[in-house]
Amino acid sequence: MSAHGMIDGFNLVGNKNDTQCKCETCAMAKIRRHACRRTKYVDAPKRIGEHVSSDVKSVPYESFEGYKYVVNFVDHYSRLGVCYFMRSKTEVLNCFKKYCSELVYYGYRVEHLHSDRGSEYFSQEGELIAGKDRSLGELDKFCELLTPKIKHIVTPVESKEKIAEVWFRDMFETADALLFEARLSPAFWCDAVSYSQYLFNRMPNYHTGPSTPYQMLTGKRARWDKIRVFGCDAFQLIPNDPLAKVPGIMKGRKVIFVGFTHGCNGYRVFDPESRRYSTIENVYFYESFKHRVDSLRHFDKRRALMKAGKNQPIQLDDWDDENAQAVRNLYADLDDQSDVKETQEPKRALNEVPLNEAPRVSERLRPQRALNEAKAHETLRLSEQLRPLRLLPVGKEAVWTKADADFLKFAREENLQISYVKNPKSKGSASRLRYHRYSRAETLLEALEL
User: Is the pTM of this model over 0.85?
Assistant: First the structure.
């Protein structure tokens, strides 16, 4: 886009021909079923607003501002997408009025509205089907009052409004990737969807050609100089701070970048302490997630918290996990060369080794480090009785070793204290009752007596 002069304020470096992202986040967040055939409209739209598709999606997680639904309006000609967030489905009419007024501001109007037979679009009053078909909903009444009228085209239930559904699929896939990469709470889903829509409207697609939906609507080229990494840390200058001159008092606060506010100049940020949104301009960005993401252990912790019924933290840290080091032990240590046999080479003094062979000398000396580590582990094991490391998942039978027997013998002699985790057995099973009876014990001998 920068090479073709479609945007200002952005210069891409690196591989400019690679258009497919192959990172783990995109692979897991954008996986989908095989595509199905799509039917094309007989009369292709020739201008913005001639045909507009709309649909409502409910989200099973409430946002910080109390939103549970999102309604979209997608233009067929430019694929320009606009979405509004709602607390109730009854707000669809007000959102449609806002969309119509925004198109009128740029010199366009809605001519045909495509939707399904949902109650938010089509009236469901009356006991008989004929009565339901004859009665008009609030949205249809609004379309009839306009001059010229807006034709409301209702899609049968069996065939969904595909353009609106595809918009939901693409935007929410991108939102999933944004939230996962930033390790943010699902309560930020509104901000992630809004930011993905902001980016989509400023990128070309196969309907716009060498243009963008934003440029087709406004006649202006899109600007990318304010785009930042979603969910990154931002540092805001506290405005009108009376303590700015006090020594040792910081002049800024740490917030989270979540996009832009429509109609406002600046950056939309979220304060995790006060849990409030604000739009600011004096801000620094730290666009890296190295302090949050454990690249070696790419684990979706939020899914585990959701299944366990626990509260979702605002921001996750992969390093703050008691099982992180245990999982890391499953991976090979590239510096450990204890299993590599030294090659039989004639020994030479260090002053006789050429400079170009110096790295080979360091490689031959590397096994000494592994021997020292093994000696240190053996010394630690003899001084303290350690519990053997278990790498198999819970429920899988492990091979009985001498280290296990030594540890259990030590535990009986010392009568070690024990603690039980939350009962993992199925409700109503006999094993759950046995586990509950054993969990009353506080020491190993008490547990053996039970």
Answer: no
